[in-house]
Amino acid sequence: MAQDILIIVNAETGTVQMFAADPSIVQGNSQGSNELWIRVPASENLRWRVEPLQLSEGVSGEGDMYHAIISSVRLWGANAGQNQGDAGNYLVNWASNNGAGDTPYYNPPGDLIPGKNEDGKPASIGTQGINRPFVECTTQLSNRDEETSLKLAYSFTVDIYQGRQKVRSISWDPYVTVYRP
Which domain of life is it from (predicted)? Predict the structure, then answer.
């Protein structure tokens, strides 16, 4: 099973909010914060996807749209007192993925207009392939680990593009606790 985490970045202010698709893995009141702390068992697959929040309308269409992508990951220590980089022993098999899938759209647009659909006829919906890039890793604990629940710090750098022009990079450091089930 995989745990999906959505990162929403305000493209204009750089504010970050993180949300776990399964709220039962969230620790404390960190859901929606930039320091999301999740607790997952060893051998769990974690996937992070980032979406830009755009508050103002662009004037010339697609070229003004914001896009965001995770450009780098840095692994920190495990629990207090551990060496920096120890998280790399527990968050392993990092990979990026373009995550193609289908997303719904109106086909044709404009057929959900009051008065036009009064007969209860639903709008025509189609799907099309779209890339949804994400990064992923797997959690692990070895049999030699004395700790049964390790809190790991990591950081992401997200690059924000406006059209094809990179306009900002943002970094922050959330947490993962890996436990032995």
Answer: Bacteria
